[in-house]
Design brief:
Length: about 160
């Protein structure tokens, strides 16, 4: 139920964001674009955490699949992200895991819930500086993230 509602909200907000006309203020547009890019990167990082959790705990795959799918849609809703600039000192080695996942399943779910909560809180905070269309998208995705955190923390994810 939560998944369908969040998908509906995200889809509607994405349509609103996609249809907005540019504002006459280039500085405002630039700030909104940076906010959108940051939100997309946050969603991508959250998606990476879901993937790492499933890789570390394959028994959680079915339970996490619907939540992960929503996070993937959130990433798409914020639009394409620019490629990160290459930085040899900042890039991890291919064999090093980018996300550390606790060995215990319960702890892994708690870590995932915490990541969802932090991301939702950051999006809620960002609402104040966002133009209306982006604010609606941020609000709906933040609400979905709060639901994900609840479901992950209560043991009822995707039941």
């Amino acid at each position: 139920m939560a998944g369908g509602a969040a998908a509906l909200l995200t889809g509607g907000a994405a349509a609103l964001l996609g249809g907005c006309a540019g504002s006459p203020d280039p500085e405002h547009d630039s700030a909104a674009e940076l906010l959108r890019i940051r939100a997309g990167r946050d969603s991508a990082a959250l998606l990476e955490r879901y993937d790492a959790t499933v890789a570390a705990h394959t028994g959680l795959a079915a339970r996490l699949r619907p939540l992960r799918a929503e996070v993937a849609r959130h990433t798409e809703a914020f639009g394409p992200r620019p490629a990160p600039s290459p930085s040899p000192s900042a890039s991890p080695s291919p064999s090093a895991p980018r996300v550390q996942v606790p060995a215990d399943e319960k702890a892994a779910l708690a870590a995932l819930a915490d990541a969802e909560r932090r991301t939702a809180d950051a999006r809620t905070t960002a609402l104040a500086g966002a133009p209306p269309e982006l604010a609606r998208l941020l609000a709906s995705v933040a609400a979905a993230g709060a639901v994900h955190a609840y479901l992950l923390g209560s043991g009822g994810a995707a039941t």
